Amino acid sequence: MKIYTILIVALCVFAVACSSASSTASPMDTMRALNEAARKKDTATLKSFVSKGTLSMMEENAKRQNSTVDELLKKDSGAPFEDLPEMRNEKITGDAATVEVKDKNSEKWVTLPFVKEDGVWKVALDKFIQDAMKQMNEEMKMPAADNSNNQTNK
Q1: Phi then psi dihedrals of residue 64, to 5 deg
Q2: Mean pLDDT by 10 residues, the chain (154 residues)
Q3: Which structural domain, as residue segments, surrounds residue 68?
Q4: Does any domain span residue 37?
């Protein structure tokens, strides 16, 4: 009887694990799952679909605000992915992937990185922020357009 109970519990755990993994068979599936979790204010599910680096970043941010990640995610403006953005151009290379998502404010397409951790695609907002900071630094280092040519040609 004990073995039968253990077998049933193991099968249930396996079924739940498989349904979670299969529900995010792709990075776009992860975005859909994040959207659903954000709408339900399901912080446990939200946290399960962000990378370890992103979760660490969120924890640091919450600590600075004397709060918790769950509290920040439950705030109306705190939960990412509450509105499912338009998506395109999913690209998977090994355990890394990108999806282009449309920024609803600027109407521009931005590339969102994903990583596969524990067999599940997770959004890597930490990498997104690092890449954005790197790009800003590079743009700031670029010399300003040389206007001297324009003045001599007048």
Answers
A1: -60, -30
A2: 32 35 75 87 90 92 90 66 82 95 89 94 93 86 58 50
A3: 2-142
A4: yes
